[in-house]
Amino acid sequence: MKIVVAPDSFKESLTARQVADTIAAACRRHLPDAELVTLPMADGGEGTSQSLVDALGGHWRQLGVSGPLGEPVQARYGLVGDLAIIEMAEASGLHRVAADRRDVLSACSYGTGQLLDDALEQGVRRIIIGLGGSATNDAGAGMLTALGARFLDARGRAIPRGGIGLAELDRIDLTALHPRLTEVDIVVACDVDNPLTGPRGASAVFGPQKGASRAQVATLDRNLAHFAGLAGKATATELDAVPGAGAAGGMGAALIGFAGARLRPGIDIVAEAVGLAQACRDADLVITGEGRIDSQSVAGKTPVGVARIARQAGVERVIAIAGCLGEGSDLVYQHGIDAVFDCLHQLASQQEILRDGEQNLRQTADAVARLIARLRDI
């Protein structure tokens, strides 16, 4: 029996490698004769650069940059020949801000721009940038500012950083924008297809996850719409309704409009790099998963992407293990997943769930492996 273990990370709890190793260990205990292939996955969110650097044999470059709220942080990106692999969460991720300090109105993507600027100065010709896990909702204005763009109010002054500052935007000055930004091939590894604004836009869907109240969501959505109008004039590109423009608080829109970037499902980029399809060709079972499976999982997230690739390779059984389940989790059954198991065994606070993530996963993985062994023997 061949089992491919290909999960994503459990955000803020376990890396994709830790999840994969924990599931594989359970399979070894109860299916000792099984052939196991572990492939830590990512879909553009946290862990994307790690998966790609590991798969492609790259190395890391680390530098000090500005965090989401302006504090100095150490961030890294991967280099593989003339390819830079950047993860937005490294500099501008939600995990960079303590839960009691999160401020989606002021959070800024400037640090991500510093990583891009450094990569351009290294002479890279290709860039892959993963957009998941961001703390920001500033339409990438901070990132573009770090690259030389100027976002000005009616008096010619720089607008405040963060999504709140976009309300004051009157003019975008691109005269000092890094000249190589549009010369390199930029591919955005994106795990969502949301537009910039509206009911499925960046603010409405992802703002609450970053701490935005209902009133703040409405404010941020208006500000993004205002930005889209001015950015459209500056770039001659209609950005508002482009699928994926709403990724990472509108960073997708900035990269499409100002850098000529192409958006690709992050799961496809990582799957190609790690050889998922090839590994699945003679597999009997694929086990995937992520921290939370809900209605968003069908919009480009790892478990559904892995299931799609596994089915195309001829795998008949796909199981997912989730840290927890949310509303709409049953939708994944329409996308190639046969069964979903969650890791919540008792009532607990979010802090306790994140703290006990490895123990909870070990218990669930053990139960799943026992079930597989028992069914195989029937």
Automatic annotation (TrEMBL):
Xref: Pfam families: Gly_kinase (PF02595)
Keyword Kinase: yes
GO molecular function, one term: glycerate kinase activity
EC identifiers of the protein: 2.7.1.31
Keywords: Kinase, Transferase
Transmembrane regions listed in the UniProt entry: none
Name assigned to this protein: Glycerate kinase
InterPro entries: Glyc_kinase_flavodox-like_fold, Glycerate_kinase, Glycerate_kinase_RE-like, Glycerate_kinase_sf
Family per record: Belongs to the glycerate kinase type-1 family.
Gene3D superfamilies registered for this protein in UniProt: Glycerate kinase, domain 1, Glycerate kinase, domain 2
